[in-house]
Design a protein that fits this description.
The complex is a heterodimer of chains A (510) and B (146). Chain A is of the alpha+beta class. Chain A has helices at residues 2-8, 19-86, 90-113, 118-146, 150-159, 163-301, 309-348, 358-368, 370-376, 393-409, 467-477, 506-509, and strands at residues 353-356, 378-382, 389-392, 417-426, 429-436, 481-486, 492-499. Chain B starts with 7 loop residues before the first strand and ends in an 8-residue tail after the last helix. The model of chain B is unreliable at 140-146 (pLDDT under 50). The chains are: A alpha+beta (510), B alpha/beta (146).
């Protein structure tokens, strides 16, 4: 029952039913159980009591029996005496003697049985002198016969007061019987009452038990229904959630594709005019050749110096300078456009997840920077073990390679370079860390460094601000996150969190 | 018996600057063939398929094709040319700014003969055009007179 109650109290499933109902149910069942326990106690108590009453009834029967047995023994003793008076044989004498002792025994037993009843005890006390008297009269009469004075004994018979004590005893025993009868009726009544009560209490207990069982069953059904309802709700919620995630993914994929397409078109369309700028700059340069030759030709024949200085200045210095600036700018622009194109192309590349033995992969990456690390003076090492993962090899290589390259590139001249690549696995994801002791990154630039064409710190190294933007784009495509922890001159830690198993999304790889 | 017909160069290029640069370099490479310039896909297709002096009616031609056209993709034009039995042997040189591998692959799959990326680096661009000039002199096979 307690177990059922416990199971009905779903502490950890509060969401399936209202707390008020639970509290009410617990209260009702608890109270019911308390009452039931009380009823059980009452039943046991009543059973004991009934048994008691039963014992007393038995006792009364025994007492009645013993009263009758005593009376019988007294009557038998009287009969034996009279028999001896009529036929004074030794047999009759012996019969008298035995009946005499039987009376004593019967009285003793009766006294023993009625010890509990003061009224009966008083009656016994009244019997005792009467019996003594009677016994004395009997003994005298028997003694006379034994002494051969039988006639005297017979003559004395009518006169003797032998009948008087006998009648007294009879009266008292009748009283006793009446008393025992009264007691019997009383005790039977009590016993019946107890049994009746027992039946009522038992009935009440049975009813209560049924009621409690019914409540329990109803409650269980209710909980089961709630549970089913909750499960159904949960299932449908899950389905809509999946649907929503799917929708979002489609949106995201579309947005991503749009960005890729945009980057592709922009870089394409930007490149087109650039071809012209560059081409016609070359044409200009080409055209400058005859022009310069003309100036030289005129110079040689111009003894008076009529050729204006500005013409020579323009042909020899200004125009070549302008052209060289145009070239430098277009080259730079070409580089930037190329970077955008590369990013957009990387976004369109189909990912091929495969099992990557990371220690070997990182080892190979470290080998490619080994000579540079040796030149600078320092070490680059793996903190084994690195967890393996299933992902796109090229992308992972590019990401880690870029991070390692950066660590080498932005080392601090103040101390020997130290690069450590470590990894750990947790909750279906793997986290790799590329830590260095280089020049570090100002915390305000931690987001900026991942943006395209943005760089941070002293611009002492060549670069276009593409590497980390590329890294982040790749990491996002791999379903990962990349963060940076660093402070100026404190080294940097790039933390890369990737799903342990890459599930290629069709939309993103389209 | 076979009268050598000069190859007409059909240049489909929307960017006037590029067209001019290409033409100059072709001329500089010593190629004097007639250059027919179309600035969009529609007029190019019109000329190729219906032009009275187009390659269908007249002698051999070579197509210089830019992929980024305002009204359609050069790839569509390439597909149309290669699907036309009378023109499918006509050499098509794709000239574009993309060096995207999949796009190059697609052009070759469709039957493009040469794929040249328009480089910003002008010297190599001129080089490519000069090589194209060599190519042009090699393919002067009179197809129409067979």
């Amino acid at each position: 029952m307690i177990e059922i109650l416990n199971s009905l109290r779903p502490k950890d499933r509060r969401e399936i039913s209202q707390g008020d109902f639970n509290r009410l149910l617990t209260g009702v069942l608890g109270a019911g159980l308390l009452v039931l326990a009380a009823l059980g106690g009452a039943i046991v108590w009543l059973a004991v009591k009934t048994n008691d009453y039963n014992d007393w009834v038995d006792h009364t029967y025994i007492a009645q029996q013993r009263i009758l047995a005593f009376m019988e023994s007294v009557e038998r003793a009287e009969t034996a005496r009279r028999g001896y008076l009529l036929t004074p044989t030794p047999v009759q004498q012996a019969a008298y003697r035995s009946s005499r002792s039987a009376v004593a025994i019967a009285l003793y037993q009766l006294a023993e049985t009625t010890l509990d009843n003061p009224a009966e005890r008083a009656s016994i006390n009244r019997i005792k002198p009467l019996l003594a008297w009677k016994t004395k009269v009997n003994d005298e009469s028997v003694a006379l016969v034994a002494a051969g004075r039988r006639e005297q004994a017979i003559l004395a018979f009518p006169a003797e007061q032998a009948l008087q004590p006998l009648l007294g005893i009879r009266a008292v025993t009748d009283e006793m019987l009446a008393e025992e009868h009264r007691l019997l009726v009383q005790r039977l009544e009590k016993e019946k009452g107890a049994i009746r009560l027992l039946i009522y209490v038992g009935l009440a207990a049975a009813l209560l038990l049924s009621a409690l069982s019914l409540i329990s069953i109803l409650a269980m059904r209710r909980f089961a229904e709630d549970l089913t309802r909750a499960q159904t709700a949960l299932r449908s919620l899950n389905q809509t959630l999946e649907q929503r995630v799917e929708d979002r993914t489609v949106d995201l994929t579309r947005a991503n594709q749009e960005i890729q397409r945009f980057a592709y078109i922009v870089s394409h369309d930007l490149r087109s005019p650039l071809v012209n700028v560059m081409g016609f700059t070359s044409e200009l340069e080409e055209s400058m050749k005859p022009l310069r030759a003309l100036v030289r030709w005129v110079e040689q024949r111009d003894a008076e110096g009529r050729l204006p200085e500005q013409v020579k200045q323009a042909v020899d210095a200004d125009i070549p300078e302008a052209i060289s600036f145009i070239r430098a700018s277009t080259r730079k622009m070409d580089g930037l456009i190329g970077a955008i194109l590369k990013l957009s192309r990387e976004g369109r590349r189909v990912l091929h997840p495969e099992r990557l033995p990371m220690e070997a992969l990182v080892e190979a990456l470290l080998t490619t920077v080994k000579h540079r690390v040796d030149e600078i003076g320092g070490e680059a090492l793996i903190q084994s073990p690195l967890p393996d993962l299933v992902s796109d090899r090229l992308a992972v290589e590019q990401v880690l390679g870029n991070l390692i390259d950066n660590a080498v590139k932005y080392h601090s001249p103040k101390r020997p370079l130290r690069i450590a690549v470590s990894g750990a696995e947790a909750n279906g994801r793997v986290v790799f860390e590329v830590a260095d002791n280089g020049r570090g990154i100002d915390p305000k630039d931690h987001e900026r460094i991942f943006e395209l064409f943005r760089r941070s710190g002293v611009q002492s190294q060549p670069g276009e601000g593409i590497g980390l933007a590329h890294v982040r784009a790749l990491v996002h495509r791999l379903g990962g996150v990349i963060t940076c922890t660093s402070a100026l001159d404190q080294g940097a830690v790039f933390r890369l969190s990737l799903p342990r198993v890459l599930v290629p999304s069709e939309g993103l790889s389209a | 018996m076979s009268e050598q017909q000069p190859v007409t160069i059909v240049m489909i290029e929307d960017d006037e600057g590029h067209a001019r640069l290409i033409e100059r370099n072709i001329r500089r490479a010593g190629i004097s063939n007639l250059i027919r310039h179309c600035t969009d896909g529609t007029s190019a297709l019109e000329f190729l398929f219906n032009g009275p002096d187009g390659p269908l009616m007249n002698g051999p031609a070579l197509v210089l094709l830019d992929l980024n056209l305002p009204d359609m993709s050069g790839i569509d034009i390439l597909a149309r040319i290669k699907a036309e039995p009378a023109m499918k042997r006509m050499p098509v040189v794709v000239l574009t700014t993309t060096d995207d591998k999949t796009e190059i692959q697609r052009c070759y799959d469709l039957g493009c003969n040469v794929y040249i990326t328009k480089p910003v680096n002008y010297e190599s661009f001129a080089d490519a055009i000069r090589q194209l000039g060599l190519f042009l002199s090699v393919i002067q096979v009179p197809e129409g007179s067979v």
